[in-house]
Design brief:
The chain is of the alpha+beta class. Strands 1, 2, 3, 4, 5 and 6 form a six-stranded antiparallel β-sheet that branches. It is built from two helices and six strands. It has helices at 76-93, 172-176; strands spanning 26-39, 46-56, 64-72, 109-115, 128-134, 145-146.
């Protein structure tokens, strides 16, 4: 048993639960509310993990979006991609030089969010991720908005090439052949 140190009254807290789906595709105004620098899982690199909070659109305000940036990695390609993404984040925030990840906190920026791909091993489903950063210095930063949701097409039956009802009738080809009664359908074989 472990003592909590004082009595906890669960009835004094809001216990409303929400079953959040992934953020829908769209343009969001975000801010980083937390960050952590950690070694990669195999210990040969450095990852910056950030927690973004949605500012706009209002319907999604407060929702979280998690991102990781490979700052150092044994894989040159992974490191190059991670550093490019991190540089894009910094430019979107308006910073050109960063020493501490807390410098990134609580500065609004705009990004395009879309559904990524599931993990290669199938263990994790697709999740929302940043697809594009918008830069104030380029102008024309779009207003936050959610993409139109396209209705899913109606399911199609796997065997939709069969007639609606199989009434066990012979095919037209079978009824037009003129073989004598009792004849074998594969024909007569002549002995050699």
């Amino acid at each position: 048993m472990a003592a909590l140190g004082k009595r906890f009254d669960a009835t004094a807290h809001d216990t409303t639960q929400s079953d959040y789906a992934e953020l829908p595709n769209g343009v969001y105004k975000l801010e980083i509310e937390a960050s952590e620098v950690k070694p990669t899982s195999n210990g040969d690199g450095t990852i910056l993990k950030v927690t973004n909070s949605v500012i706009e659109p209002e319907d999604y305000k407060g929702r979280k979006l998690f991102n990781n940036y490979n700052l150092e990695n044994k894989s040159v390609v992974a490191q190059e991609i991670g550093q490019k993404q991190f540089a894009s984040l910094c430019r979107a925030i308006g910073l050109s030089d960063v020493e501490d990840s807390e410098q990134l906190h609580f500065i609004a920026y705009t990004a395009k969010v879309g559904l990524g791909k599931p993990s290669k091993d199938g263990q994790y489903p697709a999740r929302a991720e940043i697809k594009r950063y918008y830069f104030e210095d380029e102008g024309a930063v779009p207003e936050p908005s959610i993409d139109e949701v396209q209705p899913k097409p109606a399911p199609v039956a796997a065997n939709n090439n069969r007639p609606a009802a199989n009434q066990n009738r012979p095919s037209p080809a079978a009824t037009t052949t003129s073989k004598p009664a009792g004849a074998k359908p594969w024909g007569n074989k002549k002995a050699a």
